[in-house]
Amino acid sequence: MSDLEELLRTDLRDAADTLPADLDVDALLDQGHRLRRARAGRRSLAAVAAVVVVSLAGWAGLAHRTTTGVPDPASTPTGADAVGFVTFEGDAGYRPRSPYASITVRESNGMLTLAVRKRASDPPTILATVPLKTDQATTTAISSRLMLATIPGPTQWVDVVTSDAAKGAFRPNVGYLSSVGVTVVVQVADEAQQSKRWVDGLVWRASDGTLHSSAGSVVSTATLDFSDGPLTVYRDPGLAEVSYFDTLNGKGFASTRDHDPADVVKLNMSKTGTPGDSEQFALGILPPGAHDPRVTTSAKGAEVVTGVLQPDGAVVFVARYRSDAKPKGPLITKVAYTDAGGQTRTYRP
To answer: What's the rounded Cα separation, in Å, for the pair 341 and 328?
Structure first.
């Protein structure tokens, strides 16, 4: 027997001496099986969560998940790291689909560089390099399907207001560059836009809860309390938009443009969701000075909530109907209200 073999045998005997004499092998095996089942259960729950995320992402208004850049582990300092780039990863389960496997926005020396990969294995291709402004919101058309925007400071959510000429579905990707204190947004269109100005601007909620517009206008807001939670409705006169933010729908937006004459009801009706969990909704605003809206819907069980925007005083309403059963005709069939002169008016979509 060699000296090495003798040394190994001695070490094994010493290790065996440390084990308890009454070791229950069956109990250990049972514990191991339970741990394995628990791990499998966690993987199953993760898979279910992934399916839920993909299902919720059927609406183009959803904010896509963001992968933020982090330093190489070998050089990671002990303190908080400033993030200098964000990467938005494409996902076949999301609609609209991105034309790229990944989109990376990186800041360096007062510039922002946007690079893409057609496939994950491809080297990055730089599409644009633009000046970075940290004191104002900006929007830059990168291509007929990509728009890059920046917002000073962190945000809770961002609403990208597309132009009337824009067509198709859109997906906003939002990330934060803590190295320069700027939120970056990459808006992806599912089809090529005919005009280079296919985005009018941005409305966002800052980290302190206040709403802001890239047009510099005062954004009026109202909170509508539905049975399952509140909605924030807002009006931006600078971008001519009335919209609401739905926390229950995963940062979703529904909006109507405010270009029409002031003396008419402005109404937008739409629907979203997936089979088994669909929702129809309508957003409306009364003419100036009008009040007391009486909204008639085509769906039994639809919930309608009204509110007053502050500070501009306009009356708004939102109707929601969550069911697989489609109502006959439009969700809203009639809106009666009292105008500024005290007369009863009726609007039919």
So the answer is: 34
Structure tokens given for 106: 């990186």
Task: Report whether pLDDT(275) > 60.
Answer: no
Cα–Cα distance measured from residue 52 to residue 154, given in angstroms and rounded to the nearest whole number: 27
User: From CA 37, how far away is CA 60, in angstroms rounded?
Assistant: 37
- Report pLDDT digits (tens) over 113-123: 999 999 989 99
Mean pLDDT throughout 151-169? Answer: 89
Domain boundaries, the chain: 66-72+81-216, 218-349
The continuous run of DSSP H or E covering 67 comes out as strand 67-68
Q: What was the pLDDT predicted at 258?
A: 83
pLDDT of residue 269: 82
CA distance 60 to 65: 13
User: What own/partner pairs with CB < 8 Å and gap ≥ 24 does 15-18 have?
Assistant: none
Cβ-proximal residues to 42 (8 Å cutoff; 6+ apart), any chain: none
Task: Note whether 173 and 184 are within 8 A (CB).
Answer: no
What mean pLDDT comes out for the span 62-76?
30
Query: Residue 59 pLDDT more than 50?
Result: no
Residue type, 93: G
Maximum CA extent, the chain: 109
Q: Name the β-bridge partners of 317.
A: 284, 306
226 to 32, 248, 306: CA distances (angstroms): 48, 11, 10
Q: Which of 75-84, 115-124, 179-188 has the lowest mean pLDDT?
A: 75-84
Placement of tokens 């190489």 in the chain: 72
CA-angle at 140, arms to 243 and 239, nearest 5°: 25
